[in-house]
């Protein structure tokens, strides 16, 4: 039992969880509005799109790469799909748009995969480049503009609620979109694959040391390629879901999300150089970012302070985890390394 | 083929091989200029057009120089735009205060404001450097967070809106031309010359390359790694701050979210200029060429009204990927048809 507790306090997730808990208590104490059914449901539905993005970003970072193109990729897929279905006057269910998004997303992800995975070019620069290309295709070739109308099936999907939570004190109610299930399924699937399959262990191995993983028999290039494809698919689904939830297609309002998502993933204890991190931590880190972005207003902090808080959060969070990594690193290597004079 | 021809050929080849990257950029640039000559000669090759170009590129050019030094050490600076905006906003507020209702300040104050901007950039860059060097936060995260923080401070200072009612003297002074050369370009040129001198003629440049190649080797060679890193981010901060000052003059207003796409553009330029994202490699000449190339591409495209300006980002991205793939094939000596048995590299 004692061992278990000690182990618990060596994990990053525990601290993130405690921070989140403390933050929610603070918000609750200041506003009395946090632990109300409708606020929790609001936070859950605000988690859907960032959560899905985070899963993709997390996997790529875990393998030692990085993907900054997913918002552009998702925007392009979502816009192309919605526009195409509107043009053919599609009336069916949401399955076709999602399927289309998966196919386009996989193709676009494969572009990242070819450059960053198969050719092994620096992932950050590749995805910056592809992100620029995706944006160019969307705004130049497809001449994107805001679509106020979306196909009926997507509209219904966005409106359909799992359940509705009402706040009796102020009469506000919020409903949780069915799309939340998608996040749950994707997160669970990723968790399972990472923990229990050879492929998942390969992702950790590649992130830890690519050469060692190669020598151990992991198919490094193939794994990396598939990760980018998977990220493309998940991001595209997130894009479609966002369009459904907003009930309109706004092509550019997802752009620029990448940095906060990556920050959330890293706050959750994922090493930016890869090889270390858990799915739980990734979700908790994303939750923390979503909380700060959405709930500051509840404790009376004006919206204009949001960026300051997110920035401080990123700097402090990464400083703490860098400090921790260094401490454990020194402990592990003690005796092997000359004490560094710096 | 006689001997002399082969020798000349060899010499050209060796000159090409030594600076492949540079030559490739020059070739792309020449092709583009030839293309513009053929299609839009009268609209592109005018003095005014070139003056405009030289007034426009310093803002992101300066930021690119900052990103360059960071990237040579193997790091990156994502906070350039944040620093630029915070500098522009704080100096604009200061000038507002000095000028009062008259909307006019003396030349003396313009100089003072510039010096203050440099100080702001030094502080911001210094903080970045401390975070990277002392706290060992990965540069990408440290500068990302600080960038967000600087933008946030900018928003808080301005309440999210633009400041435009500051003394007109400032914009007038910077938008001026000296002997037909825009002042913005003179500022950029001064920064570029100083930085070139530091990188080529002083040991700092060599240290930077060594540090980027291997931080451990640099440390065991007795280099003060921490100091070099802090200095590097400090330089980047100053470059960004100057970029912000030029933005302030060019837009004649300051706002926390101006130039938000410059972050990516700067990285793109630096990589295009031949700096390795893994550090340890890169020349300022390549980056200077890339800065000019990017501006020439965009200005040239603007001469074709039927092409949406959104295609610019597509072209940038495509050019970046193309250059990287070309580098990949030449640096690893892989031809498409001959597969080497063991061409696996881990970076």
Describe this structure in words.
The complex is a heterodimer of chains A (342) and B (347). Chain A has 342 residues and is mainly alpha-helical. Chain A is built from 14 helices and 2 strands; from the N terminus they run H-H-H-H-H-H-H-E-E-H-H-H-H-H-H-H. In chain A, strands 1-2 form a two-stranded antiparallel ribbon. The longest helix of chain A has 28 residues. The relative contact order of chain A is 0.18. The C terminus of chain A is likely disordered. In chain B, helix 2 runs parallel beside helix 13. Chain B has a single domain, classed as Orthogonal Bundle (ABC transporter involved in vitamin B12 uptake, BtuC). The longest helix of chain B is centred in the middle third of the chain and has 27 residues. A two-stranded antiparallel ribbon of chain B has the order 1-2. Chain B has 14 helices and 2 strands; from the N terminus they run H-H-H-H-H-H-H-E-E-H-H-H-H-H-H-H. The chains are: A mainly alpha (342), B mainly alpha (347). At the A-B interface, helix 6, helix 10, helix 12 and helix 14 of A face helix 6, helix 12 and helix 14 of B. Chain A: GO terms for molecular function: transmembrane transporter activity. Chain A: It holds the Pfam family BPD_transp_2. Chain A: Its main location: membrane.
Write the layout of secondary structure elements.
The complex is a heterodimer of chains A (342) and B (347).
Chain A (H helix, E strand, L loop, with lengths): L1 H7 L3 H20 L5 H26 L7 H18 L7 H24 L4 H19 L10 H8 L1 E6 L6 E5 L1 H18 L1 H11 L1 H6 L4 H27 L11 H10 L11 H17 L10 H28 L9
Helix pairs in contact in A: 2-13, 3-8, 3-11, 3-12, 3-13, 4-5, 4-6, 4-11, 5-6, 5-11, 7-11, 8-9, 12-13, 12-14
Chain B lengths: L2 H16 L1 H25 L2 H26 L7 H20 L7 H27 L5 H20 L9 H7 L2 E2 L2 E2 H19 L1 H11 L1 H6 L4 H27 L10 H11 L11 H19 L8 H21 L16
Antiparallel strand pairs in B: 1-2
Helix pairs in contact in B: 2-13, 3-8, 3-11, 3-12, 3-13, 4-5, 4-6, 4-11, 5-6, 5-11, 7-11, 8-9, 8-11, 12-13, 12-14
């Amino acid at each position: 039992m004692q061992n278990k507790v000690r182990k618990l306090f060596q994990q990053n997730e525990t601290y993130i969880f405690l921070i989140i808990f403390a933050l929610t208590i603070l918000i609750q104490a200041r506003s009395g509005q946090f632990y109300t059914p409708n606020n929790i449901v609001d936070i859950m539905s605000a988690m859907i799109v960032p959560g899905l993005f985070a899963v993709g970003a997390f996997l790529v970072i875990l393998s030692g790469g990085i993907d900054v193109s997913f918002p552009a990729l998702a925007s392009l897929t979502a816009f192309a799909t919605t526009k195409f279905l509107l043009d053919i006057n599609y009336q069916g269910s949401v399955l076709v748009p999602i399927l289309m998004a998966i196919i386009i997303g996989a193709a676009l992800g494969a572009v990242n995969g070819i450059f960053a995975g198969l050719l092994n070019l620096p992932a950050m620069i590749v995805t910056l480049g592809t992100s620029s290309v995706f944006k160019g295709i969307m705004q130049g070739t497809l001449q994107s503009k805001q679509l106020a109308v979306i196909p009926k099936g997507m509209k219904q999907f966005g409106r359909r609620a799992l359940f509705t939570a009402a706040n009796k004190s102020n009469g506000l109610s919020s409903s949780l979109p069915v799309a939340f299930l998608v996040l749950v399924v994707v997160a669970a699937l990723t968790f399972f694959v990472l923990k229990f399959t050879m492929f998942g262990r390969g992702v950790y191995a590649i992130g830890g040391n690519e050469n060692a993983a190669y020598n151990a028999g992991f198919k490094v290039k193939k794994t990396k390629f598939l990760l980018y494809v998977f990220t493309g698919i998940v991001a595209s689904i997130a894009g479609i879901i966002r369009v459904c939830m907003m009930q309109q297609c706004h092509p550019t309002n997802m752009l620029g999300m990448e940095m906060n998502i990556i920050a959330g993933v890293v706050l959750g204890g994922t090493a930016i150089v890869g090889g270390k991190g858990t799915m739980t931590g990734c979700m908790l880190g994303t939750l923390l970012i979503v909380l700060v972005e959405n709930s500051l207003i509840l404790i009376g902090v004006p919206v204009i302070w949001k960026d300051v808080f997110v920035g401080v959060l990123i700097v402090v969070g990464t400083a703490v985890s860098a400090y921790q990594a260094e401490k454990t690193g020194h402990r592990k290597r003690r005796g092997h390394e000359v004490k560094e004079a710096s | 083929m006689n001997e002399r021809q082969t020798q000349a050929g060899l010499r050209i080849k060796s000159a090409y091989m030594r600076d492949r990257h540079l030559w490739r950029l020059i070739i792309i640039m020449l092709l583009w200029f030839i293309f513009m000559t053929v299609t839009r000669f009268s609209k592109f090759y005018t003095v005014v057009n070139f003056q405009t170009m030289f007034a426009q590129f310093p803002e992101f050019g300066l930021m690119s120089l900052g990103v360059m030094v960071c990237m040579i050490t193997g790091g990156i600076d994502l906070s350039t735009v944040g620093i630029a905006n915070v500098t522009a906003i704080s100096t604009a507020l200061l000038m507002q205060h000095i000028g009062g209702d008259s909307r006019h300040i003396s030349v003396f104050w313009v100089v003072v404001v510039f010096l203050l901007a440099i100080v702001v950039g030094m502080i911001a860059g210094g903080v970045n450097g401390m975070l990277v060097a002392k706290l060992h936060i990965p540069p990408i995260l440290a500068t990302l967070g600080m960038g967000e923080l600087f933008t946030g401070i900018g928003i808080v200072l301005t309440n999210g809106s633009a400041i435009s009612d500051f003394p007109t003297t400032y914009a007038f002074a910077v938008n001026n031309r000296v002997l037909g050369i825009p002042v913005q370009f003179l500022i950029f040129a001064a920064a570029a010359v100083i930085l070139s001198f530091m990188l080529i003629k002083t040991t700092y440049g060599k240290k930077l390359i060594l540090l980027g190649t291997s931080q451990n080797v640099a440390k065991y060679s007795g280099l003060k790694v921490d100091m070099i890193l802090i200095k590097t981010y400090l330089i980047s901060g100053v470059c960004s701050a100057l970029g912000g000052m030029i933005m302030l003059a060019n837009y004649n207003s300051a706002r926390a979210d101006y130039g938000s796409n410059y972050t990516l553009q700067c990285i793109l330029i630096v990589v295009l200029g031949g700096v390795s994202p893994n550090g340890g490699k890169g020349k300022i000449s390549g980056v200077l060429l890339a800065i000019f190339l990017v501006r020439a591409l965009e200005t040239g495209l603007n001469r074709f009204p039927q092409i949406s300006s959104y295609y610019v980002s597509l072209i940038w991205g495509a050019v970046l990927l193309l250059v990287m793939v070309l580098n990949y094939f030449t640096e690893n000596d892989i031809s498409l048809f001959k597969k080497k048995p063991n061409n696996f590299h881990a970076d």
